[in-house]
Amino acid sequence: MKVGIIGLGFVGLSLASVLSAKGYSTIGIDIDIKKCKQITDGKSPFFEPNLEKTLRQGLKKKLKISDEYSLVKDCDFVFVTVGTPQSSDGSIDLSMIKKSVKEIGKTMYQNEKNQIILIKSTVTPGTMKNVVLPILEKNSKKKAGKDFGLISNPEFLQETNAIKDTKFPHTVVLGGYDTKYMKKARIFFSKLHPNTPIIITNHQTAEMVKYANNSFLATKISFINQLSNICQNIPEANIDDVAKTIGLDPRIGKLFLNAGPGYGGSCLPKDMKALINFASDVGVKPVLLNAVEEINENQLEQIVKLVKKKLKNVASKNITIMGTAFKPNTDDVRDSLSIGLIRKFLKMNAKITVFDPRAIDNTKKIFGKKIIYKNSASKALEKSECAIFMTYWREFEKIDNKTIKHMKRKLIIDCRRIFAEKNMGEEYFALGIGQ
Questions:
Q1: Active-site position among 36, 231, 267, 386
Q2: 181-217: pLDDT as tens digits
Q3: Looking at beta carbons, which pairs linking 208-214 to residues 24 or more positions away fall under 8 Å?
């Protein structure tokens, strides 16, 4: 049994590391030569808890890294985990998918092995049948279902929990036709995840499942943020108590009910826009999805309005953004609400200082010298006229009145209610808690 993985980003590298650490002969392919060298040296190109540890275990066993597509010719299973970034119109960019499956098709043409190709990349319904399948058959000169297997296998990984989610997924979805290849794939996953339900369906449904999953999570976040905005206008109302209570209802569940500045990251915003775009293309007006996205976009405006109300004139004011990663325990700033907030304040000519325990380097790639970077929370707060806490890093819990004593003005906007139980002064405002 040999496994090939095309694309060593968040999903691909996590999968390659876990499979090889489990003893599977694994080849990881990525066209970025510099990235391949870094991974071969046991270093992850991005921060993800437990990833480097698992990667090094895999490298000691049966993990090989290369930029050569031809090496997948000997693999029984080939996973495609390349990115599908967002195009300007909100649809997904399939260029990396097309290139990858074209190269895979060429290698298939040169060998006699009946391979199984699994697409883990997030693609809209119809992509497998209308795009991936024709490219593979054309370049391999082989027939799907007869000479090779083609299966949709969407991923459901959470950043900061990728290794655990890869080892113990809540479900495995296999989309495609009922062939010998599907049976072989089912056996492979049942051995890999013996206690995990396996859902077998068609390509279009499997593709839709991924978007349904992420759009529902985004809906929960926008729902609780809408309630948070209401609570903030009710004296002494507390959104955390509301969320905790309704989360005890098994029909609702407690996950993704943390009110804050909105959802961000590499998946939810992109997938919401792609699904909205796709729904319109098939003649459906996605009223609910549009509302979810609108609420999310308006969350930043709530923060901006509060700051402008308190500071009066934002221009030339020293504003500190605490946390630029889209969530704690990652260095990922893709579609981070903090990045969007910084851009808004820069347009108002504010002076921005930032601190993040992990994401400073990625933040610098975006803003360069336009803003100031500090290497500690206390230094970031010095001479600040307004501190906005955007990411719930655990180390922020240690901040108290002693930490903020060097602020020029002790105006604190706590978007995560980190200090809700502390006395942080008269100019402490927490989103979701009525004043």
A1: 267
A2: 999 999 999 999 999 999 999 999 999 999 999 999 9
A3: 208/125, 209/154, 209/173, 210/122, 210/154, 210/155, 210/156, 210/173, 210/271, 211/122, 211/124, 211/125, 211/271, 211/274, 211/275, 211/278, 213/154, 213/156, 214/267, 214/268, 214/271, 214/272
36 is catalytic: no
Amino acid identity for residue 217 in this structure = L
Output the CA torsion sign for 396, 401, 402, 406.
positive
User: Nearest CA to 396 among 285, 325, 322, 286?
Assistant: 322
Q: State residue 238 phi and psi, 5-degree precision.
A: -130, 115
The whole-number mean pLDDT for each consecutive block of 10 residues of the chain, a chain of 435 residues, reads 96 98 97 97 96 98 96 95 92 96 94 94 97 97 96 96 97 97 98 97 98 97 97 95 98 96 94 96 97 96 94 95 97 97 97 98 98 97 97 96 93 96 91 89
* Residues shown for the chain: 435
3-class state of residue 388 by DSSP: strand
Which residues, in sequence order, are CB contacts of 241 under 8 Å at separation 6+? Answer: none
